[in-house]
Amino acid sequence: MNEWLKNVLGKVRDLWSKWKPIQKVILIGIIAVVIVAIIAVANLSSKPTSVRLFNAAVTDQASLSKILDRISEENIQVSTSSDGIITVDNENTARKLRDILISENLVPSSIDPWASYYDRGWSTTDAEQNQKKKNIIQKQLQMHIETLDGIQMADVTLVLPDDKLFTADQNPVSGSVIIRTNPSSDFLQNRTKIKGLQDIVISAVEGLKAENLIISDSEGNQINDFAGMAESDRVDIISKQRMLIQKQEVQIRAKILKAFQKTYTEDRCRDMVVTVEMDMSEKKSDYTIYSPIVIKKDNPDTPYDDSEYRDTLPISQQTVTKEWQGTGYNPEGPSGVEGQTPPVYSDMSNVIGKSTETGVTQNNVINTTQTTENVSPKIDKVSVSVNLDGKWTKIKDPKTGNPVVADDGSLSRQYTPLTPEEISEAEKSIRGAIAYDRNRGDTVVVTNIAYDRDAEFEAEDKAYFAAIQRRNTIILIFIVIAVILVSFILFRMISKAIDKRRREREKRLLEERQRAAQQRLWDAQEDGMQVTMSVEETRRMELLENAVNMAKEHPEDVAMLIRTWLMEE
Question: What is the C-alpha to C-alpha distance for residues 418 and 448, in angstroms, rounded to an integer?
Answer without folding.
Answer: 7
